[in-house]
């Protein structure tokens, strides 16, 4: 992209960009690039090169990326990164180092790949109050769910293909367990609400324990299951969660397939807005990296480096469990003997919850029950789940939020 769009970049920024040096671990693996850029295994070669104004970190992981970026910023190099693990965990610390050293630290590609969502929230929602950001922010899991439901692929076949296509992280554990989406939701919350959450503050569930039976059951209720990140204000308290969610079939988020991502930002004045695009893959991600690089370049020309990518900072006040309300999908099995359903109904009544839809199928002496509840608070849900957990005969396999 730097080469192909060199003229346009020159027109817009006033600079010709060149990829001068690439840091690699093993020179032998990268000889095919040796003609177009200088390769090194020595980080100091980049650090001490005064001609290099912007360093792009795309190695991933926390270490040594954090140490490299800190050293670079302290040595007045601007940094662009796509590293959500690092920014979610140490973003404010690194941004402070950038600011102190009058450097830019930008990370548009860290959330939703090719969708320019961070700069949009930072610039275009400044004067509005964002009340919710929710969406599909992991391309790998959305690709897996799509291939499983549309092509009948197995989970492992779909994951292997997502790795092959370059969507998955080098270790895909964070993708499938929801941790990658959680990191992205932490960054989105920084921009939307100004708050810095820790991954420990967030309930995170992935698709690795999702049952095909629940996908089918959700479909017969009229829903599609997607791995959704939700960051929402309830009475001004912040609630962030990642997990499988039942989305009504006709909702825009239900139609997002493959590696595509979509982020819905809701704000008081503007209402709902939806941003859609490829959330993973080399070129879409490169577009976001290049948008950061060209922004930093313009700042270098204007002498305006050192402004924070996100200026909004607020204390983190968690939402109260009693305020967080959703309908829930519950999937349970219990012995098909008289009195069991009555017991379950009593447990629901005890926590003031009620059924919106319920279906029962039988498999020998076991009854499978799928329920959609009316809206209930997280506090009610937790009490109900504890009651179910304490009952030896009832086995709960899924408790997912329902949208709408
Ligand atoms: N893939 C995607 O769609 C997206 C990725 N991202 C983020 O972008 C970053 C890169 O992702 P991706 O390209 O998929 O990851 P890969 O694992 O495919 O590539 C990482 C590269 O970094 C190199 N590397 C790792 N550690 C070092 C080191 N210590 N020194 C030098 N080189 C190193 C690896 O080299 P080697 O050949 O030696 O292994 C490899 O070439 C990650 O932070 C990821 O989360 C963000 C948005 C989308
Ligand atoms: N592994 C990530 C890549 C982009 O962030 C994903 O699948 O979304």
TrEMBL record:
Quick one: which pathway? Answer: Amino-acid biosynthesis; L-methionine biosynthesis via de novo pathway; L-homoserine from L-aspartate: step 3/3; Amino-acid biosynthesis; L-threonine biosynthesis; L-threonine from L-aspartate: step 3/5
Instruction: Name the InterPro entries for this protein.
Output: ACT-like_dom_sf (IPR045865), Asp/hSer_DH_NAD-bd (IPR005106), HDH (IPR016204), HDH_cat (IPR001342), HDH_CS (IPR019811), NAD(P)-bd_dom_sf (IPR036291)
Keyword NADP assigned to the entry: answer is yes
**Where in this chain does the entry annotate a coiled-coil region?**
none
Give the record's keywords alphabetically: Amino-acid biosynthesis, Methionine biosynthesis, NADP, Oxidoreductase, Threonine biosynthesis
List, for all copies, the residue spans of the domain called Homoserine dehydrogenase catalytic: 116-293
Q: PROSITE patterns recorded for this chain?
A: HOMOSER_DHGENASE (PS01042)
Q: Which residues form the Aspartate/homoserine dehydrogenase NAD-binding domain?
A: 8-108
* Reactions catalysed according to its record: L-homoserine + NADP(+) = L-aspartate 4-semialdehyde + NADPH + H(+)
- The enzyme's main class, written as a single word, is oxidoreductase
Indicate whether Amino-acid biosynthesis appears among the record's keywords: yes
Please give the superkingdom of this protein's source. Bacteria
Look up the EC number in the record and give it: 1.1.1.3
Q: Which family does it belong to?
A: Belongs to the homoserine dehydrogenase family.
Name of protein: Homoserine dehydrogenase
């Amino acid at each position: 992209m730097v080469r192909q769009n060199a003229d346009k970049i020159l027109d817009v920024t006033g600079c010709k960009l060149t990829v001068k040096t690439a840091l690699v671990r093993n020179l032998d693996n990268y000889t095919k690039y040796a003609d177009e850029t200088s390769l090194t295994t020595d980080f100091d070669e980049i650090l001490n090169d005064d001609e290099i104004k912007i360093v792009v970190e795309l190695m991933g992981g926390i270490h040594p990326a954090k140490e490299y970026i800190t050293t670079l910023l302290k040595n007045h190099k601007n940094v662009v990164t796509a590293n959500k693990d690092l920014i979610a965990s140490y973003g404010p610390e690194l941004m402070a180092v950038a600011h102190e050293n009058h450097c830019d630290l930008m990370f548009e590609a860290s959330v939703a790949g090719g969708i320019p969502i961070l700069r949009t929230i930072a610039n275009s929602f400044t004067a509005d109050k964002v009340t919710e950001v929710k969406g599909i922010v992991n391309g790998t899991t959305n690709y897996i769910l799509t291939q499983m439901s549309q092509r009948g692929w197995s989970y492992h076949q779909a994951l292997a293909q997502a790795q092959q296509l370059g969507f998955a992280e080098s270790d895909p554990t964070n993708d499938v367990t929801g941790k990658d989406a959680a990191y992205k939701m932490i960054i989105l919350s920084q921009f939307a609400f100004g708050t810095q959450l820790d991954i420990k503050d967030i309930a995170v569930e992935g698709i690795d324990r999702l049952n095909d039976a629940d996908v089918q059951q959700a479909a017969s209720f009229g829903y599609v299951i997607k791995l959704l990140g939700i960051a929402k204000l309830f009475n001004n308290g912040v609630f962030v969660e990642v997990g499988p969610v039942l989305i009504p079939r006709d909702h825009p988020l239900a139609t997002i397939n493959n590696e595509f991502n979509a982020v819905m930002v809701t704000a008081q004045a503007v209402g709902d807005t939806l941003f859609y695009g490829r959330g993973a893959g080399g070129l879409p991600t490169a577009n976001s990296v290049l948008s950061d690089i060209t922004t930093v370049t313009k700042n270098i020309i204007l002498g305006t480096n050192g402004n924070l990518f996100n200026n909004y900072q607020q204390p983190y006040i968690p939402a109260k469990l009693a305020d967080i309300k959703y309908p829930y999908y519950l999937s349970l099995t219990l012995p098909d003997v008289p009195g069991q359903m009555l017991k379950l109904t009593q447990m629901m009544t005890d926590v003031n919850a009620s059924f919106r839809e319920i279906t029962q199928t039988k498999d020998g002496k076991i009854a499978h029950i799928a329920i959609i509840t009316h809206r209930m608070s997280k506090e009610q849900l937790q009490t109900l789940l504890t009651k179910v957990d304490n009952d030896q005969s009832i086995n709960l396999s899924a408790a997912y939020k329902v949208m709408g």
